[in-house]
Design brief:
alpha+beta
Length: 139
């Protein structure tokens, strides 16, 4: 096993340097669910996929060496959330990774299910694990 951590400079950026816990994320998820952070109306803007000026969805274009699961596919993305359904279930989700860490949050609002995976292992696919857990619940 090799211990690693983010570089000191990457931990200063909001897109990858946020430290949290499952308890914190569960509280955040509750605040989104019960509209104590944002009203239902305020949250709606985050749930509308962005479109290009010609009306098409943007295409995901991963960088060299990036093994992003969305590469080449249309991106259904609102303000901070991927919005593509999973096996017919409406879903809002996101993921992230940096040196030594991977995460995924999958919110199935119609099913009242949120799956959060936080890992400090490079050999775990957080997105796949989150959807496998969701599969145990979703019918």
């Amino acid at each position: 096993m090799v211990e690693s951590d983010q570089s000191p400079t990457s931990a200063t950026l909001g897109d990858g340097g946020i430290y949290s816990s499952l308890d914190d994320l569960a509280n955040w998820d509750d605040s989104l669910t019960y509209h104590t952070l944002l009203s239902e109306q305020e949250m709606q803007a985050a749930l509308i996929p962005v479109r290009l000026p010609d009306g098409h969805l943007p295409q995901w274009n991963s960088g060299l060496g990036d093994n992003d699961p969305l590469d080449g596919r249309p991106v259904w993305y609102g303000f901070g959330w991927f919005l593509d359904p999973y096996k017919g279930h409406p879903r809002m989700w996101h993921y992230g990774e940096t040196v030594g860490f991977k995460s995924s949050i999958q919110r199935f609002t119609d099913d009242k299910l949120t799956v959060i995976v936080l890992t400090n292992r490079s050999d775990v696919d957080a997105i796949k694990l989150a959807t496998e857990v969701a599969d145990l619940y979703l019918k």
